Amino acid sequence: MYAILGAVDFFRYLVRPEHWRELPPRWAEVFGRQAPLCVEVGFGNGEFLAEMAQTHADWNWVGFETSLTCIVKTGRKLHLNLVENVRLALLDGKFGLRELFPDASVAKVFVNFPCPWPKVRHANRRLVDEDFVQTLAAVLEEGGEFHLITDAFAYAEEAAQHVAASGLAVEGPNPLPGGPGTRYERKWRSRGLSIWQLVARASRPGKVERIAEGPMPHALIAKPFLPEKIKSLAGLKEVWPEGVFVIKEVFFAHTGQTALLRVFSQDRGFPQHFFLVISPYKGGLIVQLDGASVPFRTPAVKRAVAAVARALEVA
Ligand SMILES: C[S@@+](CC[C@H](N)C(=O)[O-])C[C@H]1O[C@@H](n2cnc3c(N)ncnc32)[C@H](O)[C@@H]1O
């Protein structure tokens, strides 16, 4: 019973931008009002996000998390506190910040205690890297701010270098006596660790290339439904400098002539899993995205649809 209530509570805060026709979206329409936009990436249990959204009730808040548990916990917290000005996305914040916000549209971006990934071989998993700060420089409005808080001094120093290189004015890292009061702040302070803050301000517009846009890709093929040919699509793969897709498995419906292709794709390190459907259409075939697993319309997704269509054309 509690689990069901929890699901209902969090659901009203959840946004599914992969389903939106237009990217970046019109946030004023999503929130039902025009207000300054603030973003938190990796909000964890949502203490900071819920408190800031209440303290600054006249701002619109967007939170990104990759953990569904964190989304559910935070949604319940927002619901219990009757918060209305927050939307949550179960999405990599690096991708979300770049693809979901137009240039010069965000007032503040907060990152509290990002996973530090201290080992050199894990460096590409760090959130605040060159690509992230390039996005920051583009999406922050003039005078907009980026706030980073971490217990990892080396992380803060590296972030400061990236931020300075992107043209933002940077302050810090400086020791922070009192912080956002999140679970991770309590954890590190209880172990006697110092906490560091870095603040960066945007003074001139930056640029970033966005990759998720356009209509849902599909293809029409003037060929019959040939199960053996479709089965042979398993393993179809393309790799190029910015991405990859692989057709991992092919399934057939028991009734009728419909095939489901399980696909893995990656665009500049952003992974997606989705299904393509092949079914008879107007005397031929249609290849389209399955409605139950809609991905962002990235180059890798479009290439997967086009490559399947090409392979079926030569049947
Ligand atoms: C160390 S925890 C900190 C949580 C919270 N900010 C706090 O201070 O207690 C890092 C959080 O970032 C989330 N996370 C990691 N990488 C992320 C990404 N690329 N986009 C969004 N969230 C991410 C993790 O799921 C985790 O909840």
- Order of neighbouring strands in the sheet with most strands: 3-2-1-4-5-7-6
Per CATH, the superfamily of the largest domain is Vaccinia Virus protein VP39
Number of strands: 13
CATH architecture heading of the largest domain: 3-Layer(aba) Sandwich
The percent range for helix content is 25-40%
CATH level-1 class of the largest domain: Alpha Beta
What is the N-to-C succession of helices and strands?
Answer: HHEHEHEHEHEHEHEEHEEEEEH
Q: Unreliable segments (pLDDT under 50, ≥5 consecutive)?
A: none
Average pLDDT reading = 92
| Shape type | elongated
CATH topology of the largest domain: Rossmann fold
What count of domains describes the coordinates? Answer: 2
Taking all Cα atoms into account, the compactness measure Rg is 22 Å
SS summary, helix count: 10
Distance linking N and C termini: 52 Å
Q: Which secondary-structure class do the elements indicate? A: alpha/beta
The set of bound ligands, ions and cofactors reads: S-adenosylmethionine
DSSP strand (E) fraction? 25-35%
How is the biggest beta sheet arranged? 7 strands, mixed
Structural description of this entry:
The protein is an alpha/beta fold and 315 residues long. It has 2 domains: 200 residues, Vaccinia Virus protein VP39 (Rossmann fold, 3-Layer(aba) Sandwich); 96 residues. The chain contains 10 helices and 13 strands. The strands form 2 sheets. A 7-stranded mixed sheet has the order 3-2-1-4-5-7-6, sandwiched between helices. Strands 8-13-12-11-10-9 form a 6-stranded antiparallel sheet. Strand 11 and strand 12 form a beta hairpin. The structure holds S-adenosylmethionine. The site of S-adenosylmethionine has 21 residues, from strand 2, helix 5 and helix 8.
